[in-house]
Amino acid sequence: MPQFIPGLKLSELFYIEVVKPILESEFPNLKYSAGLIDSGSEVLGYDTLQSTDHNWGPRMLLFLSENDYMRNKDKLWTVLSKRLPYNFKGYPTNFGKPDQFDVQLLEEIKKGPVNHRIEVFTLRSFFKEYLNFDPYSEPQTSDWLRFPEHKLLTITVGKMFHDDLNLDKIRKKFNYYTTDIWLHFLSLQWYQISQEEPFMGRCGDVGDELGSKIIASRLINHLMKLCFLMEKKYTPYSKWFGTAFAELKSSKKLIPIFNKVLNTQSWKEREKHLSQAYTEVARLHNNLSITKSMKTDVSKFHNRSYLIIHAKCFSDEIRKSIMNKKIRELQLDNID
Questions:
Q1: What class does CATH assign to 179-328?
Q2: How far are the Cα atoms of 6, 89, 95, 313, 331 from residue 318, in angstroms, in the given order?
Q3: H-helix or E-strand containing 37?
Q4: Which stretches of the chain are assigned E, i.e. beta strand?
Q5: pLDDT tens digit string along 82-137?
Q6: Which backbone phi and psi does 25 adopt, to 5 degrees?
Q7: What residues have CB less than 8 Å from 66, skipping those under 6 apart?
Q8: Phi and psi at residue 81, in whole multiples of 5°?
């Protein structure tokens, strides 16, 4: 077993030590960009030795102009398949054929062409496939609302190894949401909390501790997403959600509280810890100075004894700060 090298670093070394010299030799006048900004744990920097078992290895994306793509795509693939070494840093450069789930495994070969994963795109074809978006346009409200957040994350945190085509300039368009879209998503998260915040106690009150735990975990999920938004960080998909949350500034205080919420067996004890989490997140909200100062203490749900933060008040106040009328009037009712 070779020494593990994080995939993003492995791919960069692969480019510098192997791919770049081949391109300079075979295509000396070619203008291109090369990097890794697509899906994969290695793009986020979260890969481990376990990640090497599929869709991982010395790979990269190669971007060409429209004209060079038409002229050179097939020739590029063929030249690389013939000239690439069979191994790099102890890892095969050859990948097996995709299975029914489009999974490819590293596969040792001793002769013949390398079935490599140096994928060739134009800038337009990549963004069309990855985001269904024209990279030469500016994202509109409808685009921001439909972009998968985990894909925005990979585009912004991935790395370019070479950039003749100024792809980094396009990447900057996706650095983060526009202010009004950001406020909309903040408002939405508070609204989602408002839809369930009294139910954790209500389930416990009728002896349904399992239901109470499930709702508590959903509320924690919403609070975590709020923290990503408040720190203006894109959220990864579920596998790396907790890992990425632990990197947020707010996680230091909140993770111990969340663990207490999840580990307690009594809904009243669970409510006490969840109330602490509400208070901390409400303080973080006030630190943003995007609304008037909001109450940070929990209080009763109507005349019932369940303690809540009254999240809809936060949602409503945030919406007042949205300047774009169409965004301000987006419906919050049809949510998961």
A1: mainly alpha
A2: 41, 52, 50, 9, 14
A3: none
A4: 32-36, 60-64, 87-88, 91-92, 118-122, 159-163, 299-300, 307-308
A5: 999 999 999 999 999 988 888 899 999 999 999 999 999 999 999 999 999 999 99
A6: -80, -45
A7: 122, 124
A8: -65, -30
Please name the amino acid found at residue 127.
F
**Under the phi-then-psi rule, with left for phi > 0, alpha for psi from -120 to 50, and beta for the rest, what region is 70?**
alpha
Domain-wise residue ranges, the chain: 7-174, 179-328
Compute and round to an integer the Cα radius of gyration of the chain.
Answer: 24
40: left (phi over 0), alpha (psi -120 to 50) or beta: left
User: Coil, strand or helix: which one is 310?
Assistant: coil
Q: What percent of the chain has pLDDT over 90?
A: 93
- Rounded-to-integer distance, Cα 34 and Cα 21, Å: 13
Kind of pairing between the strands at 60-64 and 118-122: parallel
Count CB neighbours of 270 within 10 A: 23
pTM of the complete model: 0.94
166: left (phi over 0), alpha (psi -120 to 50) or beta: left
Q: Which residues contact 289 (CB under 8 A, 6 or more apart)?
A: none
CB atoms within 10 A of CB 196: 16
Nearest 5°: CA angle at 227, between 222 and 232?
125
Is 335 a residue whose pLDDT tops 80?
Answer: no
End-to-end CA, the chain: 44
Residue 254: closest CA among 286, 288, 219: 219
